[in-house]
Amino acid sequence: MRYLLIVAMLAGFVPSTTVTLKVEDSSGAPLKGELVILQNLSGREHEVLRDLTDQGGNVPAVGLEPGIYRAIATAPYGLWETEVREFLVRDRSIQVVLKVRPKATRGEG
Fold this sequence. Notes:
Radius of gyration: 18 Å
Number of helices: 1
Number of strands: 7
Largest sheet: 4 strands, antiparallel
Structural class: mainly beta
Distance between the termini: 73 Å
Strand content: 35-45%
């Protein structure tokens, strides 16, 4: 009986993989205050995380199930172009680095 209970608990267990997200400018310098949105694309779009980057350009690490995800980095005040990256999560930890470029002024600034 105990064996069946353990098997039933393990059958519903899906291991998670640690994913870290970092936002940098084109020179590799970390950016503070960038909005990062993480979406799960496996099945349907579902927002997993929405947070601002810290001094080191990082948001808190998140444990994700295997699947396809989209990370979006955007500046709340439009100083940087929005960066979108889709990536695959498997069985080992990964770091996703989003590189953003300054927006063109279009002659207005």
